[in-house]
Design goal:
Elements (H helix, E strand, L loop, with lengths): L1 H17 L4 H17 L4 H17 L4 H26 L6 H27 L4 H32 L6 H36 L9 H27 L11 H15 L3 H27 L22
Length: about 325
């Protein structure tokens, strides 16, 4: 914006020198200012600032006073910018990082509760009411994620022009990466609940979901996901925001093998619509375990939170 104001002043001086304070001068000042502002990538306020700077000089000064007006306006801009930066460096802005950390832990604990509730229900033979209730709880967790996003955005704005806030900005980046890891976990938990809600709602045999059928081995896999999330939350409480965990591949493989072994005698039921949902639950739970184990710095951006990624989420 300072460069834009400087350009606006230079433009006004040139127009006043060669055209004078005419209607054409005003037209050219506005047209060129808007073009240059767009090329500089300024927001609408910055673009208007260039045009206003040019017009103040073109219309506010006459004859030999143009140079004096230009110098005065430039001095005002530079001094004002310097004072603003000095105040941001010397007077600490509000620190929103503690609030962001608190919300980060709240989101993690909410995902823990959702996943534990889902696991306990699967272990005893989940019903459609239990699956739908857990799905609604998981969607409420998404609201907490949005609140966490707002807290992180607020912290970023407060630190943006703080010249002495480098350490806090580095910490904010870690919070943002940890937030992204929890976002993945929230989405996967919600999609598991969605798959189980659909499985229990279909007009097909559902005995395969019973505790003595696939309930126990699927719950064992979800237990592993809960334990991995617990370990991740312990790291967050200890201040380790982005570190990784070691995946117990032998245990993970044993859980998957137990599910496959129990599925054999239930193949006739599963062919009537159960295979798709069972495969989705196993795949999502496995992905949840591995995602929570890798360092948070390796995550890509998740889908936009305003739109629920689970199918049929509007229901």
């Amino acid at each position: 914006r300072v460069l834009g104001v400087g350009f606006g002043i230079l433009l006004a001086v040139l127009i006043s020198e060669y055209i004078g304070p005419t209607a054409w001068a005003i037209f050219l000042a506005v047209l060129i200012s808007f073009y240059v502002g767009r090329r500089l990538g300024l927001d609408p306020g910055g673009v208007q600032q260039i045009a206003v700077s040019a017009l103040l000089i073109v219309l506010g000064a006459a004859g030999g006073a143009v140079d004096d007006a230009a110098i005065l306006h430039l001095a005002n801009t530079v001094i004002g910018t310097g004072v603003g930066l000095l105040l941001n460096a010397s007077v600490s802005p509000p620190n929103y990082l503690p609030d962001a950390r608190r919300r980060l832990l709240e989101v993690g604990e909410s995902i823990q509760d959702d996943l534990r509730t889902l696991t306990d229900a699967v272990r005893t033979g989940i019903s459609n009411d239990e699956a739908v209730t857990t799905l609604h709880l998981a969607r409420e967790t998404n609201t907490r994620l949005l609140e966490l996003d707002r807290a992180l955005d607020q912290a970023q704005e407060s630190l943006q022009f703080n010249l002495l806030g480098r350490r806090q900005r580095d910490m904010l980046k870690l919070y943002q990466q940890a937030d992204l890891a929890l976002e993945h976990a929230s989405i996967q938990t919600r999609m598991i609940a969605r798959a189980l809600a659909d499985a229990t709602a279909q007009d097909a045999p559902q005995e395969w979901l019973g505790p003595h059928a696939l309930g126990e081995p699927v719950a064992a896999l979800l237990d592993m996901a809960v334990e991995t999330l617990d370990a991740r939350m312990t790291m967050l409480h200890d201040g380790n925001l982005t570190g990784g965990l070691t995946v117990d591949l032998e245990r993970l493989s044993a859980c998957q093998s137990a599910i496959a072994e129990r599925s054999g005698p239930l193949e006739h039921q599963l062919r009537q619509g159960g295979w798709v949902y069972l495969g989705e639950v196993v795949a999502l739970a496995t992905q949840l375990i591995t995602d929570l184990s890798v360092p948070a710095t390796r995550f890509d951006a998740a889908p936009e939170r305003g739109a629920s990624p689970d199918p049929g989420s509007a229901g």
